[in-house]
Each structure stands twice: as C-alpha cells, then as structure tokens.
Write a structure and sequence with these properties.
The protein has about 140 residues and is an all-alpha fold. The protein has one domain (about 1-135). It is about 85% helix and about 0% strand. It has four helices and no strands. It has helices spanning about 1-30, 35-70, 75-100, 105-130. About 20% of the residues are buried.
Length: about 140
Amino acid sequence: MEKMQSTIIQMHIWPLVALALLVAVNIVVIVMQKDDRQLKKYLSIQAIAWITLMSMVVFTGAAIMAWLHMPFRIKILAMIAAAVAVSFLELRRHLATKKARAGQACFTKFRHKVLRYYIFELLWLLMVGGLAPQLP
C-alpha cells in the first residue's frame, strides 16, 4: 500500500516538474529567439504540451485526493489556487499570442508581456512546490 501511495505521488510530481521545465525553456526561447514569426509559431505549438502537462497535474492531484481520502487543508487549497492562477496566466498568454502581429513594432511589448506571464507562472509553480510540504 505504501508503494502504491509513493507511486501515485510521483505521478503527480513529475508532470509538475516537466511543466516548470517547459515554462523555463519558454522563458529562454523568448529571450533568445529573434525571429518574431518563429517565436509566435513556437508559442502556439508548445501550448499543446502545456495543456497536456497541466491536465496531468490536475488529474493526478484529484486522483490522489480521492484515493487517499484527503480532507481540504491549506496545502490542498494552495495547490488548487496555484493551478487556477497558472491556468489563468496561460490563458492570458495564449490570447496575447493570438492578437500579436509578427514583424510590427508592438511585438516587443508582446515579448515583455509574455515573459512577465511566464515568470509569474514559474513563481507560482516554485512557490507551491517549495511551500506545500511545509503547510499543514
């Protein structure tokens, strides 16, 4: 039983780590990529990976709560709040990507806005990942 519990928790943690790595890679790509069209295309394509990883995190988190019969605690509420906040930031980023026109002068503002969204996403992921074990 203990082995199954640790396996389920690992199935929840690894997609979360992969999601944080994806966000970190996206930050690097935004800074390094100079071609606006390639950046917009990359951000549109990687959204599929982001959605897949976030879905895995939410699904495994719900499965862990159901299987372990966990009551709502501050830790669980913080994780739910982080999932909602990160999803909201990603939705805002996706809408900004759709509106952006590659090759125009305003694309620099778009880069800064998207970079800010990704930094906040990464902070949310790191904050909950680092603080959740210490919460009751």
